Structures are given as structure tokens and as C-alpha cells.
């Protein structure tokens, strides 16, 4: 019997998840159907109930529902509770849903795919919104020398650093608090969506540093266009998208799909 999965988002038409999971299923011989579901922005609960009542086995959750999903899950993974976000749902027995987040693992796996080590490196994260909350714990687990979080609204970065301080060396502040250079700078703001650039100093990158934008598109983001001439090697968030999907697929099906060919296919689909 075909098992039913899906992604809740609004808008969801642009989502690459159906394409990615269809490829994973083909590769691994899993009999699944994966659909895009677009509930009204204030009505996730109703669509969710319907989906699982109709036999849905699991789902992804994307913008703008990742925080709402936390309140609808019956149980949460430790990391989802800490992140305050859910991107993966699993139907348990008795109509219960379990929520987890694979975004941070997706980022760390993508960095590993590109042989970018975090251990003992100085890492800067720009932004302190929902997307950034999801990546902090997995980043700290890699034991960087330090993790600095800067945000336009400094208080949000300070709060975030306080919330994760028990997990490792993390500091938060405003852009004016930035000092020194970094081996990896991750743009986790939504500024790329509007073609804006966070106010970063020119001398931000250490030799051989990487610039990573969690967004991606057919063209490099404004942040990556800025970082290239300043000496950084560049990565966008396409690989993170594929790796977080692979981890969701693994949680659902207990099979690990291969990701290199899916990255390639997705990159080509952008052109
Ligand atoms: P998401 O779910 O994508 O994280 P969010 O929670 O609304 O969305 O967070 C957006 C993040 O991008 C915030 O860190 C925001 O900074 P503020 O907290 O000061 O609002 C950041 N951001 C958005 N536009 C920005 C810009 N033009 N320059 C710098 N930071 C920006």
C-alpha cells in the first residue's frame, strides 16, 4: 500500500520537497506519495487533523507553520522543543503526532558534504529568528572554538545566546559588537529574500573562510555576492534543503537516500 506524506506550507507551490522526496522514494524503492498541502495561514490545525485522520504517515512543515506546529504535536524531540520549531511530523499510534526538526542537522551535513569542519573554528551566525534557532544546537555540538550570533535587534541575539549557553561557547549581540575575523559566516536572516544585505564589516573573513547563506536561488544571494570579493568560499542553502529532507526521509522510512544526485537535479531545476 502506498504511504502518504506531505508538506504543509503557505505558499507551498514553490516547495522543492515533493520533487526531492519523489526522487528519494524512487532511489530507495519506497512506495510513498508526497503532496504539497496549503492550509490558510491561520488554519494549520484543521488541515493537519484531516491529513492524519485520512491515514497520513508523516509530513514536513515549512514557512509559516514551523512554530505553530510545536503547539500541535503531542510529543516533541528534545531538539525541536529547544529550537521552538518543527519541520518533521511522524504519525505515531493512537492518532498521536511526534514532532522533530532536521534543519540544523541538514546544515551540519551539508557543511560536512563540502568538507567544512566546524571543530575549533570561529563561527558567526547572522540573524536570530526562527530559522537560526533551529541550527544553534547542532552547530554547538560540532564544538566550534566560539559561536557568535549577531542580529539587527541585538536583544534577540542576546536572548538566544542565553537560551543555548549551557551547550557551549556562544555569545550574542548587535552588529556593532562584532570583533575579529571568522572561519565560517552563516547568513540566517531573511534579508536575502528582499535582496538586502545585513550591515557587516568588510574585514570579516579569516583566510580560507566560508560564507554560507541558508537561502538559495538561481543567482547567488546578495550576501554571497558581497562575500565572494572579500575572499570567502561560497555555499548556499540548497544542500541544506536536500540534507534536511534526507534526514526526514530517514526518520520516516529508516532508509538513508543518496543526496549528491538530488543536489545536482535541484540545481539544474533552478536554471
Ligand atoms: P525566519 O523564520 O526566516 O528566521 P524571522 O523569525 O522573522 O524569520 O527572522 C528573520 C531574521 O532576519 C531576524 O533575525 C531579522 O532581524 P530582526 O530580528 O532584527 O528583525 C533578520 N532580518 C530580516 N531582514 C533583515 C535585514 N534587512 N537586515 C538584517 N537583518 C534582517
UniProtKB/TrEMBL annotation:
What lineage does the source organism belong to?
Answer: Bacteria, Pseudomonadati, Pseudomonadota, Gammaproteobacteria, Oceanospirillales
The annotated subunit structure for this chain is:
Homodimer.
Q: Which Gene3D superfamilies match?
A: Leucine Dehydrogenase, chain A, domain 1, NAD(P)-binding Rossmann-like Domain
PANTHER family cross-referenced by the UniProt entry: BIFUNCTIONAL 3-DEHYDROQUINATE DEHYDRATASE_SHIKIMATE DEHYDROGENASE, CHLOROPLASTIC, SHIKIMATE DEHYDROGENASE
Q: What is its EC number?
A: 1.1.1.25
Q: Which gene encodes it?
A: aroE
Pathway listed: Metabolic intermediate biosynthesis; chorismate biosynthesis; chorismate from D-erythrose 4-phosphate and phosphoenolpyruvate: step 4/7
Its name, as the record gives it, is Shikimate dehydrogenase (NADP(+))
Which SUPFAM superfamilies does the record cross-reference, listed alphabetically? Aminoacid dehydrogenase-like, N-terminal domain (SSF53223), NAD(P)-binding Rossmann-fold domains (SSF51735)
Role, per record: Involved in the biosynthesis of the chorismate, which leads to the biosynthesis of aromatic amino acids. Catalyzes the reversible NADPH linked reduction of 3-dehydroshikimate (DHSA) to yield shikimate (SA).
Domain SDH C-terminal per the UniProt entry, residue ranges? 237-264
Q: Which NCBIfam families match?
A: aroE, PRK00258.1-2
Amino acid at each position: 500500500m502506498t504511504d502518504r506524506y506531505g508538506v504543509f506550507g503557505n505558499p507551498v507551490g514553490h516547495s522543492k520537497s515533493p520533487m526531492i522526496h519523489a526522487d528519494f522514494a524512487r532511489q530507495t524503492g519506497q512506495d510513498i506519495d508526497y503532496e504539497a498541502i496549503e492550509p490558510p495561514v491561520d488554519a494549520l490545525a484543521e488541515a493537519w487533523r484531516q491529513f492524519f485522520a485520512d491515514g497520513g504517515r508523516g509530513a514536513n512543515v515549512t514557512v509559516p507553520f514551523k512554530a505553530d506546529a510545536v503547539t500541535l504535536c503531542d510529543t516533541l524531540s528534545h531538539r525541536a522543543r529547544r529550537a521552538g520549531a518543527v519541520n518533521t511530523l511522524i504519525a505515531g499510534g493512537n492518532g498521536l503526532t511526534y514532532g522533530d526538526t532536521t534543519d540544523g542537522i541538514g546544515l551540519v551535513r551539508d557543511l560536512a558534504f563540502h568538507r567544512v569542519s566546524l571543530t575549533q573554528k570561529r563561527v558567526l551566525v547572522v540573524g536570530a529568528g526562527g530559522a537560526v534557532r533551529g541550527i544553534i544546537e547542532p552547530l554547538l555540538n560540532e564544538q566550534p572554538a566560539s559561536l557568535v550570533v549577531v542580529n539587527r535587534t541585538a536583544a534577540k541575539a542576546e536572548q538566544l545566546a542565553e537560551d543555548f549557553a549551557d551547550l557551549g561557547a556562544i555569545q550574542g549581540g548587535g552588529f556593532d559588537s562584532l570583533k575579529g575575523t571568522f572561519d565560517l559566516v552563516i547568513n540566517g536572516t531573511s534579508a536575502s529574500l528582499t535582496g538586502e544585505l545585513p550591515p557587516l564589516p568588510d574585514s570579516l573573513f579569516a583566510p580560507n573562510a566560508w560564507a554560507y547563506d541558508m537561502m538559495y536561488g538561481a543567482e547567488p544571494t546578495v550576501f554571497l555576492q558581497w562575500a565572494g570579493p572579500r575572499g570567502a568560499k561560497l555555499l548556499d542553502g540548497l544542500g541544506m534543503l536536500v540534507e534536511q529532507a534526507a534526514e526526514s526521509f530517514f526518520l520516516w522510512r529508516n532508509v538513508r537516500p543518496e543526496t549528491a544526485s538530488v543536489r545536482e537535479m535541484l540545481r539544474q531545476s533552478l536554471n
